[in-house]
Amino acid sequence: MTAARVSAAQSKLRREIDAKLAIKEHEAEKIAIRAKTASLRAARLAREAEAEAQAKAKPSRVKMAKPRAKK
After folding, report:
1. pLDDT in tens, 9-34
2. In this model, does residue 62 exceed pLDDT 70?
3. Domain limits at 19?
4. Model's pTM, two decimal places?
5. Is residue 4 part of a domain?
6. Considering the domain boundaries, does residue 68 fall inside one?
7. Is 70 domain-assigned?
8. Could you write out the DSSP letters of every residue in 29-63?
């Protein structure tokens, strides 16, 4: 092989390795994003459930009508 072909083959091999590494990094980022999203969703649902439980437990204040003055 000539020097140019060797250099081209090395470049091609380097690009393949870089591409595989980029794919692995991308997959790792996707997994991290999914985990973070799941964690945030669970926290939000817990907050909403707690707020709903407090709303049910807390009696609502009903204003009573004032007695009307007799004429």
Report:
1. 999 999 999 999 999 999 999 999 99
2. no
3. 9-54
4. 0.60
5. no
6. no
7. no
8. HHHHHHHHHHHHHHHHHHHHHHHHHHHHHSPPP-P
